[in-house]
Specification:
Keywords: DNA recombination. With 192 residues, the protein is α+β, with helices and mostly antiparallel strands. It has a single domain (8-188), classed as Orthogonal Bundle (hpI Integrase, Chain A). The chain is built from seven helices and six strands; from the N terminus they run αααβββααααβββ. It has a four-stranded antiparallel sheet with strand order 1-2-3-6, with no helix packed on it. Strands 4-5 form a two-stranded antiparallel ribbon. The longest helix is centred in the middle third of the chain and has 21 residues, at 74-94. It is globular and about 45 Å long. It starts with 7 loop residues before the first helix and ends with a strand.
């Protein structure tokens, strides 16, 4: 069976629907722009986001996988700062706690101490897609990111290449902060 990546128009509809549902749906955005597996994104904690250097640490779920830092563009960092960092800090504040960096980005717990269910993430995405007429799943978003890399004229991306130099932007009209395109970033060197 051939992998079926969503089209750019379908991705635009998915992202628009996700952000219309609320900030907690930022996981869909991260799946799209990173090409990471759902478990890799679900395991991301606040300490894995380098807000000052615009990057996220991806710790692979596969055996013998390689951990790496992924550069993120401003269209991705802005929602991460607003919907993750600030939202988590506010939630912890109502509990009388302060952020430690151990909080999970994707969590159903008020204190973000545990990551959310992977099965539920998949079910939510599939259900949201079906509600707007798109048959998709979390792994298809990974295929979308890979397809964009190939269309961007690279089949063997460098870990230090500029994301914007090899990927075509995807027009999106309704994203937080008003960005006008998605650029799927490439992995960057894990050097600090």
């Amino acid at each position: 069976m051939e992998p079926k990546a969503p089209t750019p128009v379908q991705v635009a509809a998915l992202v628009t629907a996700a952000f219309a549902k609320g900030a907690d749906w930022g996981t869909v955005w991260l799946l799209l722009v990173t090409g990471a597996r759902r478990a890799e994104i679900a395991r991301c904690q606040m300490k894995h986001v380098g807000f000052e250097r615009s990057r996220i640490f991806i710790d692979p779920t596969k055996v013998r996988g390689t951990s790496w830092w992924l550069a993120l563009d401003s269209a991705t960092m802005e929602p991460l700062e607003a919907s993750s960092r600030d939202r988590i800090a506010d939630r912890l504040g109502t509990l009388g706690q302060t952020p430690t960096g151990e909080e999970y980005l994707y969590s159903y717990q008020p204190d973000h101490a545990l990551h959310g269910s992977l099965g539920y993430l998949s079910k939510r995405l599939k259900s949201m897609g079906q509600s707007i007429g798109i048959d998709t799943h979390t792994h298809a978003l990974r295929h979308y990111a890979a397809t964009e890399l190939i269309v961007g004229s690279t089949s063997s991306p460098s870990r230090t290449a500029s994301a914007t130099s090899v990927l075509r932007p995807l027009p999106i009209s309704m994203l937080p902060g008003g960005p006008t395109s998605i650029v799927v970033p490439l992995p960057c060197s894990p050097a600090a």
